[in-house]
Every structure is written in C-alpha cells, then in structure tokens.
Amino acid sequence: MINLIDFKTKLESLTSKWWLYLILGFLFFLPSYSAIKYPTTEIPKVIVEVLKNPIIYSYPIIFPALKILMLIMVLGIFLSHIWINRIFAFFTSVLLLAVSLFQNSAFTNDYGFVLLTGNCILQLVVVISWLWEVLSPENVYPKPRDFQWKWILVPVVFLSYWFPMDNAANPDFSIISLFTNGAMLTYCMVTPILLFLLIAAYPRVNVVTFRITRFVGLLFGGMNMINWFILSREFWWLGVLHLPLFLLAILALFLKTKNMEKIE
Questions:
Q1: Is 89 a member of any domain?
Q2: For residue 105, what are the β-bridge partners?
Q3: How far, in Å, CA of 222 to CA of 50, rounded?
Q4: Closest Cα to residue 19, out of 215, 199, 254?
Q5: Which 3 state secondary structure label does DSSP give 33?
Q6: pLDDT digits (tens, 9 = 90+) for 227-238
Q7: Using CA atoms, how far apart are residues 31 and 119, in angstroms rounded to an integer?
Q8: Counting Cβ atoms within 10 Å, is residue 101 exposed (0-12), middle (13-18) or buried (19+)?
Q9: What is each CA distance from 66 to 59, 70, 72, 178, 182, in whole angstroms?
Q10: Are 263 and 17 in contact (CB under 8 A)?
C-alpha cells in the first residue's frame, strides 16, 4: 500500500523545486495538434478559432445548471460541515478535467480537429493537484465571519463568476447573462474562484494544490494580460475579465512567499 504520509512529503518537496515550474512553463508553449497543418504565423488564429468554439460549449443548456451548482458548492463549504470539502475537491477535479480536455479542443473549418496541447497538459496538472486534495484533504475553509480583509476579494471573484460579456467580446451586465453564459466551463473564469477559496483558507491549505493552482493560474493570467492589453487591444474587455485570475494568482504567490517555506 502507498504510504500517504511519505507520498505527501515527496509531493510537497517536488512542488517546492524551482525546476518543476520551469518545466511547467515550457509545457505551456508546446505546439498544438491539428488535423490540417498550418504555418507558425497562423498560431494566434488557430488559438482564437479553438477558444471561440470549443467542444465544451456545444451544450449551452447545462450552463445555468453549472452556475447554480458552483454557487451551492461555494456556499456549502463556507456554511456547512467540513465533510463537504472533499466533495468540492472531487467536483472541482471532474469539472477541470472536462475543461482541460474540451475547452482546449475544437472542430474548425480551416484546420480540422485542433487540440491546444500545452493548455490541456497544464490544466491536467491542476486536475491532479485537486485530486490530491480528494485523497489527502487539508483545506480548511473559514466561516464568513472570519474572512477579515479577504472580503475585499469577493467583488473581484464575482466578476469571473458573472463573466459579463456578449458574443462580440463587449461588456454585457444583464442578469440573464449571469446565469446563461459558459463561465463555469472556462478555465480562466473557474480558477479565480478556486484561488479565492484557497486564499480564504490560507494558511490551512493543501500545499500541493495551492502551489500548482496559483502557478498555472499566473501563467494563464499573465499571458492573457499580454494578449488582451498589448497584442489585441481591441478586445480590452477580455483583459479586464482576466484580471481576477491574474491578481488572485499574484496574491496567492505573495502569501506563499511571505508565510510558507521558500522554494528550494
């Protein structure tokens, strides 16, 4: 049998190594798979094609159900008994597994089936980190009365949950969009919720889950800042909607640097 204590020690040691994050950063830039080959100059176009119409958005009928389920889960872990924490970790693992496989893949007109390989692999690493929380639960979420300064993060994370944007990437703050968009099947909108929960629980968090979630979040958040505020400024609102991911990942990194053991 696997000794979970020994395995936990090894995982925590592994996720404290600087070279692990160098490898993860390299994986981010792996070339995408496509049924029809394309020149490197068309890489941005391929990525846009996939993220505009990923397979996971094929069934919008489930969007409202996932919005409501996520809200129930988050309220449940703050208001209910600690047993729901493991259920939430399992729910998160399943949700992120679906997102990693199907938000990063699409059947396109110009390139056939496309898989954003780097995105998919990195997000699967995050899935593994949350599965570890299922096996070895350590996150202890506070009651709302104990949030203290962390209350200021609620509007930030709510922006990701709402995801107020129309099909043309313009602001859309309609109440209908709050419950009908695909935010809960979008990695960059789900992750700020997870980071908020980990920050709220800090320092009583699963170290492995915390480290991996915030680092991969920082990668995606940073790249989106560059893309939407520098390279494609006409879609600036997408940059605004990715600010929660970037800022919460930065905050998670700051907390770790200040209060947890240093990376070896």
A1: yes
A2: 115
A3: 20
A4: 215
A5: strand
A6: 999 988 999 999
A7: 10
A8: middle
A9: 12, 6, 10, 12, 9
A10: yes
The tens digit of pLDDT for each residue in 207-256 reads 999 999 999 999 999 999 999 999 889 999 999 999 999 999 999 999 86
Amino acid at 7: F
**What tokens does 87 get?**
């259920």
Q: Tokens in use for 264? A: 């070896």
Compute how many other C-beta atoms are within 10 angstroms of the C-beta atom of residue 81: 8
Q: How far apart are CA 50 and CA 113, in angstroms?
A: 9
Q: What are phi and psi of 123, to 5 degrees?
A: -70, -30
- Please give the tally of structural domains in the chain: 1
> How far is CA 201 from each of CA 205, 215, 221, rounded to the nearest angstrom?
6, 17, 22
By CB atoms closer than 10 A (0-12, 13-18, 19+), residue 173 is exposed
Helix (H), strand (E) at residue 248: helix 236-259
Question: Would the pTM of this model clear 0.85, i.e. be above it?
Answer: yes
Tens-binned pLDDT, residue by residue, of the chain (264 aa) = 467 778 888 999 999 999 999 999 999 999 999 999 988 888 888 998 999 899 999 999 999 999 999 999 999 998 877 778 999 999 999 999 999 999 999 999 999 999 999 999 999 999 999 999 999 999 999 988 888 888 999 999 999 999 999 988 899 999 998 999 999 999 999 999 999 999 999 999 999 999 999 999 999 999 999 999 998 899 999 999 999 999 999 999 998 644 454 443
- 244 contacts 160 by C-beta, under 8 angstroms: yes
Would you give the DSSP letter of residue 263? Answer: P
Residue 243 domain flag: yes
Q: Is residue 195 part of a domain?
A: yes
Domain holding 151, by residue range, is 4-259
Is 264 inside any structural domain? no
